[in-house]
Amino acid sequence: MRRLTRRHRARGAALLAAAALLLAACADDPETPAGQVTVSGEPGAAPTLTYETPLVVDEARVEVVWEGNGPVVEEGGPILLDFYAESGADGSVINETFSSEPRPYLLSAESLGMDIYRALVGQRVGSRILHVVPPDATSGATTVAVYDLLPTRASGEEVPPREGLPTVTLGDDGHPTVAVPESEPPADLVVQPLIRGAGPQVAAGQVITVQYLGVTWADGTEFDSTWGPGKLPASFPIGVGSVIQGWDAGLVEQTVGSQVLLVVPPGMAYGGTQNELADQTLVFVVDILSASGEPASVGER
User: Fold this and answer.
1) Which residues contact 135 (CB under 8 A, 6 or more apart)?
2) Which of 7, 37, 238, 243 has the CB geometry, 3.0–4.6 Å to 51, for a possible disulfide?
3) Going from the N-terminus, what domains does the chain have, and what CATH number goes with each?
4) 79 contacts 67 by C-beta, under 8 angstroms
């Protein structure tokens, strides 16, 4: 969020592309059977891949390790991935996200590369996908990768909001629209869960991945959003002063999967700064998609 954080959040598609390219030596055992890969591990944790090395395959293989119950991912729309990739030559790790935070991409061949795009198109959110790719002109060995398709919108129990707050309407894809009441804004921070997710609580010091929409209370003008064509979820450290105070105070201890309405007075947003929104009360709708990393100690906050 260009106005919410001082940290640059662009990471680029190079991280995922690296998962599809191997620099290991070409395997020399032509009799290694194709497709003999076993995937184990629990949801939310890095998988364990079991196979004989060197692994040699002649054609790509896609297997649904488990199928999610979420919507089918849409062509050109945002997806959120945890991934883990190894070299089939020796089982060494090429790249993974489970020790950091998931990565957002557009579901397109341009964004993901053709091989990964073909493996993921038509899959359901919540699925774990095994993808085994033979060597090509730029890689010297088989790639063995696992992709977890994570939600890109809040999901859980709906919470009736209190009266007098902005009204939030959701589109079919989860895109929120906010109608601000014709009344004076509250003087204090308002934190109103609209959907309560079933995931773990967010802790200070973690990195949260979110979808969000921000509008002004004064006239409902949208000033920032991750929703819309070509846009992606964003990741921010929370509870450690990297975002505005209203986010730190309002999102810590919420649960992953939740959608939270925040009404942030100027003193907890941009009051006292040169920002063009310095005197504005701001309204945010935030979908918390994941929380990664270890909480900060008291001295680090």
Assistant:
1) 22, 26, 27, 141, 142
2) 37
3) 14-150 (3.10.50.40), 157-300 (3.10.50.40)
4) no
- CA-closest candidate to residue 175, choices 127, 215, 213, 146: 213
Radius of gyration of the chain (CA): 21
Question: Which among 83, 75, 88 is positioned nearest to 118, based on CA atoms?
Answer: 75
234 contact partners, CB below 8 Å, separation of at least 6: 1, 9, 104, 209, 210, 211, 212, 226
> For the chain, how many residues are written?
301
Query: By the 8 A CB rule, do 93 and 145 touch?
Result: no
| Locus of tokens 């959003």 | 225
Distance of CA 124 to the CA centre of its chain: 15
- The DSSP secondary-structure symbol of 266 reads G
* pTM (two decimals): 0.88
Written as six digits, the tokens of 160 are 């009736």
pLDDT reported for residue 66: 97
Place of tokens 């804004």: 185
Is the Cβ–Cβ distance between 116 and 178 less than 8 Å?
no
- Residue 187 pLDDT exceeds 70: yes
Q: What is the pairing mode between strands 167-170 and 176-179?
A: antiparallel
- Residue among 147, 74, 82 at smallest CA distance from 116: 147
Point out the least confidently predicted range of 10-14, 106-110, 277-281: 10-14
Encoded tokens for 272: 């006292």
pLDDT at 260 over 60: yes
Alpha helices in the chain (DSSP H): 14-19, 109-112, 114-120, 245-251
Question: 90, 76, 65, 82: which is closest to 15 by C-alpha?
Answer: 82
| Cβ neighbours of 156 (radius 10 Å) | 17
Q: What backbone torsions phi and psi does residue 183 show, to the nearest 5 degrees?
A: -150, 170
pLDDT-based confidence at residue 36 (cuts at 50, 70, 90): confident
CA 85 to the chain's CA centroid: 18
